[in-house]
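Next up, sample data:
>
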Amino acid sequence: MSSDEVEAIRRFSGFADIYNQFRPSPPDELSNLLTQFAGMEAPELVVDLGCGTGLSTRYWAGRARRVIGIEPSPDMLREAQAQPPLPNVSYQAGYGHQTGLPYYCADIVTCCEALHWMEPQATFAEVVRLLRPGGVFAWFNSLEPVIVPWKADEAYRRYQRRVEALDDQRGVTRSGLKWPKEEYVKCLEANFRHTGQFQLHQVIWGNAERLIGSATTKSGVQGLLKMGVHEVEQALDDLRADLRRFMGEEARPWYLSWEGRLGIK
C-alpha cells in the first residue's frame, strides 16, 4: 500500500457515522442526465468510486439494476455496509485506480466528492477499463449551500473563512490535494470521445443542528480536530450559537448546487 493510499484511509477515518447522517445525497436530476447520455433508462451496472458511506451508491438503488460502491476506508465501508440492505446494492474495498471489477462491466461510473483525492492517470485508466463502449463517467461535487435566513448564511460564511484560514495555516487539505483540477480535466478529455460540464441544483431542508453536523463532515475540519486545534472547536461553538439564534429548531431551506464533468467512452 502506497503512502498516498495510507493517507486516504487515515483522512476519512473516525467520523463515518457523522458523515452518513449529515452529508447530502446527489440531486434527483443527476440520474436522468447520466442515463440519457448512456442511452438506457435503467443501467445494468453503476460503479461508484470512493463511495464513502454509500450515500451516492444507494442513490442508484431505484434507478439501476445493480450498483457497486468502491471504498478504501474501512471505517466508511463498515458504515455503508451497516445501512439497511438493498438487494441490488453492494460494497467492496478498493481504490479508484484498482477496483478488482471485470473489464467493460459498467454502463455508468460515478465519483461523488472524491476524485480530487485520487491519482488522475491511473484512476482514469481504471474508469475506461470498467466502462462498456458508449458508457458514461461523471465526477461531481457539491458547493457550499445558500441558507435562509440571510443572517444564518452570513454566520456560516464567517465560520467558513475562519476554518479555511486555519486549514491554510496547518496545510491540512493542501497535503492531500496533490494534483490540480486541470490535470483531471486533461485526463478526462484525453480518454473520452465527448466531454461536458454540468450544474444541478436541489433544495434541502434542515435546522441549525443539521447544518452544524454538515459543517463537521468536511475533511479539513476533521483534520484540524484530529490535530487538536482548539480554534476550530471555538469556531464550531460560535457557529452553533449563531445558528441557534437565527434558525432555531425550525427547518429552513438550503439551496445547494452541484457542479460536475462527464465523459462518453
